[in-house]
Specification:
The structure holds two protein chains of two kinds. By secondary structure, chain A is of the alpha+beta class. Chain A has two helices and five strands, in the order ββββαβα. Chain B has a single domain, classed as Alpha-Beta Complex (2-enoyl-CoA Hydratase, Chain A, domain 1). The chains are: A alpha+beta, B alpha/beta. At the A-B interface, strand 3 and strand 5 of A face loops of B.
């Protein structure tokens, strides 16, 4: 299991927290919570070691569009980059609803 | 029924099996009455999985909700089959047992509270074996105390089904609800094949597995009380009906003499066809058990 932490700049407050997904094979769980300040902090625990660069690429891309001040925790059981992107977008959708 | 109507029914059907544990639990309550206890944001996860390099889930794959079913107070505990095969462990088992104990305490205080447990599980989680065994013992003890006060309803919808120690817990419940897709059995097909050989049980033969462990067979043999389609309103209706039915006059698990005599009368020197066994043991037709 690999542990990855990433930080991104943020501009706005997020209305509420969101929980999506399951730690099942090829899937992941995301917990998104509003945070104080102008920073977004991402904590990742993944069952597949050695994909730090891929995680960073997926989240770099996600944060080019997303500017919420949040704490995001990801528990991953081998989700593909596409799957991770979809779960992140789903978490945002739930938190803005 | 014309083809067109059939397709419309199929397309508009709200599958229960396709829901995750949280959605399944919520779907059983009267609209707007449910709230989750000890949810993922409380972050009570397994301390043992990270030590073994396995990613934990924040609710440990166990969702506890309280609310009303058919106007009556009820607690629903749903095991998430997609996380570690729905295995029972220190945290998830502890949450399940504690929820049943709290329901029991409420009943003793004069607040009638039923319990519904949604089981999609292969039994004990191997990474926490002893703690899981202890948790299942606690769950079974809790069911035995609670079922005197209020119905404890087990729903196994599939596709994991209910095996291992938790099949015993299902056997203690006041009522069992199954779909055709669900399976209920003590030892799983692969375990039986591994221990007794392929002649005893061919675990690659899916038709055979469902003919023995499947919901239709279990219902016909009197080991389940309701057989429903994979349809959310149908599952919720069955649960609501059983909650309002209250405590059953006779428990399946107290009919030791009946089941012993059935097994004693069976010629085990040959393989039985599941249909033959169903004809021999049919109870839902004969009302033999007066349930």
């Amino acid at each position: 299991m690999e542990h990855i932490e990433l930080d991104y700049p943020a501009k706005r407050k997020v209305p509420k927290r969101a929980h999506v997904g399951v730690v099942g094979s090829g899937d992941l769980e995301i917990l998104l919570e509003p945070a104080e300040g102008e920073i977004a902090h991402v904590t990742i625990r993944t069952s597949v070691d050695g994909f730090r660069d891929t995680w960073k690429a997926v989240l770099d891309r996600f944060f080019t569009k997303y500017d919420g001040a949040v704490r995001i925790q990801i528990n991953d059981a081998g989700g593909t980059p596409g799957n991770v992107q979809l779960r992140l977008e789903q978490a945002v959708e739930v938190s803005e609803r | 029924m014309s083809n067109k109507e059939y397709n419309a029914n199929f397309i508009n059907r709200q599958s229960f099996i396709e829901l995750d544990a949280r959605e399944r639990a919520k779907a059983l309550f009267d609209a707007g009455t449910s709230r989750e206890l000890l949810g993922p944001f409380d972050r009570v996860e397994s301390p043992w999985l990270p030590m073994q390099g396995v990613t934990p889930q924040e609710d440990d794959g166990c969702v506890v909700m309280k609310g009303k079913i058919g106007g009556q107070v009820a607690v629903v505990v749903a095991i998430e089959g997609a996380f570690q095969g729905g295995s029972i462990r220190e945290v998830s088992g502890g949450k399940l047992a504690a929820a049943l104990d709290l329901a029991c305490a409420d009943n003793e205080k004069g607040i009638p509270t039923s319990a519904v447990i949604l089981l999609e599980t292969g039994g004990v989680r191997l990474q926490e074996a002893n703690l899981g065994e202890a948790a299942i013992a606690e769950i079974m003890a809790s069911i035995l105390v609670l079922r005197k006060h209020a119905p404890v309803i087990c729903v196994t919808a599939g596709t994991v089904g209910c095996f291992g120690g938790m099949s015993l817990a299902a056997g203690l419940c006041s009522y069992v609800v199954m779909t055709r897709e669900a399976r209920l059995g003590m030892n799983g097909p692969e375990v039986i094949e591994q221990e007794s050989g392929v002649d005893e049980f061919d675990s690659s033969d899916h038709a055979l597995i469902w003919a023995i462990d499947g919901g239709e067979q279990r219902y016909a043999m009197g080991l389940a009380d309701a057989l429903v389609d994979d349809d959310t309103p149908q599952v919720a209706d069955a649960v609501r009906r059983l909650v309002s039915q209250g405590v059953p006059p006779v428990y399946r698990s107290s009919q030791v003499a009946l089941y012993r005599s059935r097994i004693a009368a069976l010629d085990t020197s040959r393989q039985w066809d599941p249909r033959e066994l169903r004809a021999l043991w049919t109870t839902n037709g004969s009302k033999e058990e007066k349930r």
